Amino acid sequence: MTIQSFHPPRRTLMGPGPSDVYPRVTEALARPTIGHLDPEFVRMMDEIKQLLQFAFKTENPLTLPVSAPGSAGMETCFANLVEPGDKVIVCINGVFGGRMKENVERCGGEAIIVQGEWGRAVDPAAVEETLNAHSDAKIVAFVHAETSTGARSDAKALCALARQYNCLTIVDAVTSLGGSELEVDAWGIDAIYSGTQKCLSCVPGLSPVSFSAKAVEKIQNRQTKVQSWFLDLNLVMGYWGQGVKRAYHHTAPVNALYALHESLVILQEEGLENAWARHQQHHNALVAGLEAIGMSMVVPASERLAQLNLVSVPEGVDEAAVRAQLLADYNLEIGAGLGDFAGKVWRIGLMGCAATKTNVLFCLGALETVMNKSGATQAALAVYQQ
């Protein structure tokens, strides 16, 4: 058998991720590979740290991209901050809160669950009630932007609660970084992780993280070793530290880091607030179009992510068949539901460079044809003309 080169089809990615990648980012991937301890590469590493501090709105020195996808960023936070016996309050309002619980338990901690409704934000009152009942809790963990449901929780309020009860916070911002308001320092977030493949419109495979001074203090004063050698920040800090001289830890994904650097430069050029506003504008147009053809949004408007839209599948419609037809006829990808929402919803992403008027109108036009409806594109255009 002779295997030939792989040439993927050209898709428009409007699912839950990965998102379409900026052409400048794919160009950056093709630049010459140099050594991961090369002085020029080290200089670029420092720029990536500064750009991530800009994106997270933080001055935390321990801000870096983990050399693996967002799930590894999650595990980095939990493996370094949770020790055996630690009590961690975990807010679950979707699939990814459940993964936080898994991480706590695998680190030997005790997960105290605040169970929320899927498709709704985490309830601060329920969190406070749990904090009152567990005064020995050390950490509060929650998902800021729940990718499985499209719900956005009030990170500022939840972090304020955690501080009031002397708890650190671990926050999942995989889908919010670059697409929703996010202020690590102003909101008092202690540990946060994200991914490159969502609103940054970079290639998958890296996970930006950031840790507060309080979090670093806990990491440096652990009573037990971090269970993962690769993710142990006490070791990683030597490679992502300050200055030209770096301690070898692992061979960094050199070209992927070129790509991240370029995507963050693009974000800096646009401006954070402008990026947030752009995602919101195209979300408003998409929702108007969907509602014009009888579709309803699952998440209430005040708790809704702009970049990840959860749409109820109309009664009698084969949701998988619609997705398959969009892919076959239009090379357009939208996402299926997960967990409690499997088979009941579509997840339509407007992330990074996919959040454009062109994509919104393309997606709505394709849905109009596939579902034999009309009026969606006109409703969206009305929003754009306001």
TrEMBL record:
Gene3D superfamilies: Aspartate Aminotransferase, domain 1 (3.90.1150.10), Type I PLP-dependent aspartate aminotransferase-like (Major domain) (3.40.640.10). Residues 33-337 form the Aminotransferase class V domain. It comes from the Bacteria. The modification N6-(pyridoxal phosphate)lysine is found at residue 198. Its EC number is 2.-.-.-. Substrate binds at residue 347. GO terms for molecular function: alanine-glyoxylate transaminase activity; L-serine-pyruvate transaminase activity. Keywords: Aminotransferase, Pyridoxal phosphate, Transferase. Its cofactor is pyridoxal 5'-phosphate. GO terms for biological process: glycine biosynthetic process, by transamination of glyoxylate. InterPro entries: Aminotrans_V_dom, Aminotrans_V_PyrdxlP_BS, PyrdxlP-dep_Trfase, PyrdxlP-dep_Trfase_major, PyrdxlP-dep_Trfase_small, SP_NH2Trfase/AEP_transaminase. Pfam families: Aminotran_5. It is an enzyme of class 2 (transferase). Belongs to the class-V pyridoxal-phosphate-dependent aminotransferase family. This is Purine catabolism protein PucG. It comes from Parendozoicomonas haliclonae. The lineage of its organism: Bacteria, Pseudomonadati, Pseudomonadota, Gammaproteobacteria, Oceanospirillales.
